[in-house]
Design goal:
Layout lengths: L1 H5 L14 H5 L12 H18 L4 H10 L16 H8 L1 H7 E4 L38 E2 L4 E2 L1 H7 L2 H9 L9 E4 L9 H11 L5 H9 L2 H7 L1 H10 L11 H11 L2 H24 L5 H18 L20 E10 L4 E9 L5 E9 L5 H18 L4 E6 L2 H8 L7 H14 L3 E6 L6 H12 L6 E4 L4 H7 L1
Length: 478
């Protein structure tokens, strides 16, 4: 492949290899060319077979291999012996990859062992408390109060260390569902060759020391938030951004989405692009622009983008264009979410077709490991509230396009999002006429303002408003 890439005419001509194969295979986000590393890609392909052994044990191939090579254990616990085939050796070569990226999704807890399974929402997903001898075969369902279907806190405090207690209490319980496996690196919880390849590059691939040190210095957060150049750019921009010193870039950007309005978010996106262009100019062309020129470039980009947008409708009523009957009441839903703590608050506002306020609700949500999980749980809470109010014709409006796609899709979702999505579908079927549709944040300002206000006030109780709207959205209704 080196000869093909660097050759200059075919035949026996030999071109200069300007980059090492290791650097060529380094992902683009780390400064490489993004060629596939053949060994890593083959390992990711083999991981697909291991994933099928794990999630589809009733298949003919899985039953044959289990009966032949590990009849008394599961794929996770199996140890390759001396009497093995070449196919089995290949599949087991990817066993560490699969086992490192899987987690147990707790339903009723009857098929998950407390000490021997990765089921906690943490980078170290196993129980760290020493195992008492009398609990050698303990299962998760033994930690659940059968009367309330919640974690039995007295049992947890008696057995586990504080770290494990806090992590266990974050795990949602769904007694109507069986325990299952899901893939940690995918939103739907399903292994793919692409996600397996990314995990190999992030965990397994042996990079050279100089590249590792360079990568640590130039992390995404460092480039866009923490380096001296980026700090000066944000200072000149006069945008009130959150402190990103102790946050990952994704967590920092989620706070941006939760705290800034739409116009400021567009400016932030333009500045991020301008900072990245400045970084590339410095790395590849040895030219370092000034922070002021970067801000000016971002400003021109925003201006050009605004000029390219179609003119707004003269009526300004976007709801007339949405695909639902005008006689339906509108229920706006949004969440405020802190990815660092997994904390979320939902805001729900119900209005009549003419825009008249009917009712509102805000509620703290249980621990959510992603903003998509928070949006899905918020939708479930809103639908439950609408059902209790006996609403018969309502459209639920959310700015989460992924949630709408999940509700319309027939594809299986194996992560915790899947359970919440199924509950949403069940609640929708219990309402006479109910739709869930996507709208942009600019049209979802009522729920967004309510969720953000209740989140910032640190209220851990469910609040309801009837007739008189909350003060945080009263001016927006006028």
């Amino acid at each position: 492949m080196n000869k093909f890439w660097w050759g200059s005419g075919g035949g026996n001509e030999r071109g200069i290899h300007w980059l090492s194969w290791k650097r060529m295979c380094t992902p683009k986000c780390f400064g490489g060319l993004g060629f596939k590393d053949l060994r890593a890609f083959n390992l990711a392909l083999l991981g697909k077979q291991g994933w099928r052994f794990l999630t589809n044990p009733a298949s003919l191939v899985a039953r044959v291999y289990k009966a032949r090579y590990f009849p008394n254990s599961s794929f996770v616990d199996a140890v390759i012996g001396t009497n093995r085939s070449a196919c089995l050796r290949g599949i087991f070569a990817a066993k560490d990859l699969i086992c490192g990226g899987i987690r147990r999704r707790i339903g009723d807890g009857t098929s998950t062992q407390v000490w021997n399974s990765p089921w906690l929402p943490d980078s170290n997903p196993c129980i760290q408390t020493p195992q008492p001898s009398y609990l050698s075969n303990a299962i998760v369902s033994g930690l659940i109060d059968p009367n309330t279907n919640e974690w039995d806190e007295e049992v947890l405090m008696d057995i586990f260390e504080p770290r494990d207690v806090e992590l266990i209490k974050r795990v949602p319980i769904s007694p109507s569902y069986a325990d299952s496996w899901y893939w940690l690196d995918d939103l739907r919880g399903i292994y793919s060759v692409k996600s397996g390849y990314k995990r190999i590059w992030g965990v397994v691939t042996p990079l050279t020391d100089d590249f590792i040190s360079w990568n640590k210095v130039e992390s995404v957060s460092h480039v866009f938030i923490c380096c001296a150049f980026a700090v000066n750019v944000w200072r000149i921009s006069h945008i009130d951004i959150p402190d990103g010193a102790r946050l990952s870039f994704s967590a920092w950007f989620e706070q941006i989405l939760n705290t800034l309005d739409a116009k400021e978010i567009i400016k932030v996106a333009a500045i991020l692009y301008a900072v990245w262009s400045a970084r590339n100019s410095a790395v590849w062309e040895a030219k370092v622009p000034t922070p002021a020129s970067v801000v000016a470039l971002a400003g021109r980009a925003v201006h050009n983008w605004q000029l390219s947008q179609p003119a707004a409708s003269p009526t300004g009523n976007t709801h007339e264009q949405l695909p639902f009957p005008l006689s339906f009441s509108r229920c706006h839903v949004d969440v405020a979410y802190d990815s660092g703590l997994g904390k979320a608050t939902a805001g729900v506002v119900l209005v009549r077709p003419n825009g008249e306020f009917v009712a509102a609700m805000s509620t703290p949500l249980p621990y959510c490991d992603s903003v998509i999980m928070a949006e899905t749980v918020a939708c479930k809470e809103a639908l439950s509230w609408l059902k209790d109010r006996n609403e018969e014709a309502v459209v639920l409006l959310t700015e989460c396009a992924v949630l709408c796609a999940n509700l319309c899709s027939s594809l299986e979702i194996m992560s915790y999002i899947g359970i919440a999505t199924k509950e949403c579908r069940r609640l929708m079927s219990s309402i006479v006429s109910c739709l869930v549709l996507y709208i942009p944040r600019s049209d979802n300002f009522l729920a967004h303002a309510l969720a953000r206000d209740c989140f910032s006030s640190l209220q851990d109780v469910i609040l309801f408003w009837d007739v008189v709207p909350p003060s945080s959205i009263m001016e927006l209704l006028i």
